[in-house]
Amino acid sequence: MSRIGIIGFGRFGKLSARYLSKDFPVVVSTRSDQAEAIKACGARSVSFETACRQPIVILCMPISAMRETLRQVAPLLRDDALVVDVCSVKVYPVQWMRELLPETVSILPTHPMFGPDSAANSLNGRKIVLCPERIGSDQYDKIRAWLESQGLVVIKTTAQEHDEKIAVSLSLTHFIGRSLSAFGARDLDIDTEGYKRLMHILGVVSHDTWQLFEDMHTYNPYAKQKRQAFIDAMTDIHERLNQ
Question: Residue 132: pLDDT band by 50, 70, 90 thresholds?
Answer without folding.
Answer: very high
